[in-house]
Amino acid sequence: MKNQVFILLICLLAGSLITSCRKDNKQGSTDQPNISNDVLAQIKAKGFSTRNVHAVNGGYLVEGDIFLSSKELSQRAKVNKVRVAKTEQYSTNNLLAGLPRVIKVKVSGLGSAFVQGTNLAIQRYNALGLRIRFQRVTSGNADITIQGFYEGPSGGYITLGSSGFPTDAGDPFNEIQMNTHPAAYGSNPNVQYVGSVIQHEIGHCIGMRHTDYMDRSYSCGGDPVDEGDGGVGAVYLPGTPSDPDPDSWMLACSNGGNRTFNSNDIIALSYLYQ
Fold first, then answer.
1. Are 251 and 8 in contact (CB under 8 A)?
2. Alpha-carbon torsion (90, 96, 100, 103), positive or negative
3. Strand, helix or coil at 225?
4. Does the keyword Metal-binding apply (predicted)?
């Protein structure tokens, strides 16, 4: 895909700050004709870039893929940012509690590629031997529900999916949304591609931030952009590298292909959940 990147986005405060995965073809303009200066100031105060801000239902989309609700935007963020180098693994302040535990995942109203992609993501996580295991269910209550939305390209990008971070009570974020528009995954979605997106979004649901959250240009290109603390924390995970890590499953952007855990990702997940 020429000049096209697949942005796997930061997922913020569960229930109020949500982010999404995107394909993005251009950086866009710094002009914000429909966004007030007060809103831009609030976005900047949260630690996010004010480039390419888009008004959406219930809030604003910033940095191409981060949803900030109007309510959360007006609240003062808690700052807990720990930086050691530029590309280590990071988690949020909130992690899953009550370990060991089984996380039930349900796919609702989506086609076979999304079901198979979910199975693939679950298989990859369960192979790590963590104290959290995932189980796909077809009925009853689920801890994470994967469902669809339909949204075409806008302003040179298309949203691929979205999720959020764990709750204060130590539960996973309860929803992953996947775009069913043909421009997102095509008319015949590739299971490994879809599964890699779901795998990444599950990472956010259990508390993983982007490996390059402080400089999205590392994986996305363009101008250096710091995703900011966003009130959820950015906690360095010991044992992960201080050098660039181009294969991490939690990089902000990829080329839209198959991506799973590398050795450093496994170190990070094992540090948190093994």
1. yes
2. negative
3. coil
4. no
User: Torsion-angle region of residue 228: left (phi > 0), alpha (psi -120 to 50) or beta?
Assistant: left
* CA-to-CA dists, residue 132 to 38, 163, 203, 237, angstroms: 42, 18, 12, 18
Residue-range definition of the domain harbouring residue 22: 5-273
Tokens of 82: 């720990």
User: Residues 62, 68: contact at Cβ < 8 Å?
Assistant: yes
- Is the pLDDT at 57 greater than 60? The verdict is yes
Count of C-beta atoms within a 10 Å radius of residue 159: 28
CATH code at 100? Answer: 3.40.390.10
Q: Quick one: pLDDT at residue 93?
A: 76
State how far the Cα of 168 lies from the Cα of 55, in Å rounded to an integer: 28
What is the distance between the alpha carbons of residues 152 and 42, in angstroms, rounded to a whole number?
28
